[in-house]
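Bench notes, afternoon.
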Amino acid sequence: MSTFPEFLQSLSDDQLRLLIRTRPDAFFPTPPSAGSLATRLGLPGSASRALRQLTAADLAVLERLADAGAELDPVDAGELGEVAHLRELALVFGPDEELRISPGTLTALPPGWRVTDSLPVGADEALEALPARERKVLETLASSGGVGTTSAAGPDADPASPVAKLLAAGLLVRVDANTVRLPRPVRDAMRGIQPREFPLEAPALPEVDQSAVDETATSAGLDAVRQMRQLVMALMDHPVALNKDGTVGVRAAANLEKELGFDPRLLITIGEAAGLVGRGNVDDEDVLAATRDALTWIDATLSDQWAILLVGWAASPWRADTAAKLLSADMHAPAVRYARLTILRHAGRTDQLLFHAPLEASGFSPQLIQAVVDEAQFVGALAGTPQPAQSSPLLALLGSEDVAAAAKELVPPSVDTLIAQGDMTMLAPGPLEPDMASFLERIAALESPGLASVWRVTEASVRRGLDGGLTAEEVHAWLGRHVMGEVPQAIAFLIDDTARTHGAIRAGAALSYIRSADPALIATAAERCGLRVLAPTVAVSDQPLTKLMAQLRAAGMQPTAEDNTGATLNMAPEPALVAATPSALPRTPKATEEQVEAIVSKLRADSGSDADAGAGDIFETLRAAARARRHVAVGFVDKQGRGRTLTVLPLSVSAGQVDALDEAEDRVVRIALPRITKVVLA
């Protein structure tokens, strides 16, 4: 029987190349020998990454091998299932008739985790009706790793004992005559968690109409672009003051939502990850503001804007589905990036996740999966009903391809004409270029989003445009250039009527002044804002013009700013910008073909090195013996410095010590791991 290092050394060049591609983390830097490679492959981190590549069917085979004792002794795997994938990942080794589980493999599994465990029928009712003694047994096992030793485990034990009753009810599983195990689904049910059932065959995939999926995804993605543009423009005009801990206050978030007309929580996290929104200091105040990169994004094509949002969302380290304060430490969860990508690879289908990624999916709550699906539909990564499917840009992202190119294929040509109707609406028959969309947002309210959007002109929307520095003449001229045919009279009249009453008060810098043909307005403004009246139609203020304009608006008036010639001024402030801190997508290391060949050559050159190194990990042997319920002879040095040997049954190996049952003395002994000199299977 060969050791694991000897098995690695015996691999053909093609087998070694495959192992390098499937487990690249163990080969950088290049291991000096087969023994060193064996050690790296058995490390918990490396073994855990390999286990996450297994399907539920693969894990079921691994469990059967473990139950047959393959961790310590070779077994015949002929009837236990397909082991090809396990071989590719070097999680097992040896011929089929003498197959072994590689060192470190089972140690990397979560404690008590088994894919084949299931909740027995009637378990919920049985747990609800458990007597106190039996419940205590289950709670003790649940808090101590799930495995326990008892004399009541044997088939001839007293059937009235708590353990025997739990075994009969299927709430415990008999390992051997002295050992019982608490199945994971039972433990979950005890904690009020819905147990997961892992399918052992690949669930069927639904047929996907990719064109329909892409059409829906494009519409959603462009609407997300529109909302992000609104958010960025709002933050350019008015950065949001942050709390001392860098979070966005509840009131500030509510005010921003009121201004925008939609909840900006998710968009802020996407914008932060995409480098469009950031936190920084402006005028000695910590604020949430647009970034310098946002200026470039605003001028980009619609397809590029969508691609940037989609990638930014996928890379976001924020959990927007929590109730925590916006951008707080409680929202920051970098690991969610890995979960998000796993969920996206399987389009949020729980059955696919539980088969193809069981170890990862077992840690995903239904709430997390649903949140990822909802967010993915918002940004156009997933689309379709009743079960969403991946859009082409998402498929490109998952395949490390050009997301922007995939988005460009889907976004229809932009339009520069509108269809205006007498009911005060305007139809955009296709996507609008950013400049055109920005102007339309200033004078109309979006009524129906989509690739073909509908906008409504209202008094409030026109006044918003006039407040931003537009004149009625500029609005009419713009509509004349972009509306197909004649502008309906109703729209033209509304613009003129709103402009007629807008700007009845004229403000300028003295520090500042106001003037109006209506003396009553001057008197009212002077009274409400503390102005000095110089004449019936003129008053002055000691406030700067920007503050005076804010005061007048707060008093319910609609002033218009002017320069010293009487021309209208645009009082929109210069954007306050902060530095971008974009997030990156998590990447799995991959070896290039050149690197693969170089590693193979180096390992072959060192083929005479320590082929048997690492074969005798006594701690790994102890852990394996504890899992397999195998007796071992342990050599150790006691506190008096004397060498001793005991034949024991290891119970647990943790915290630098092993607890083992000395059956000859009917007692549990505890031995510090550094004192152990050898371990031999009894």
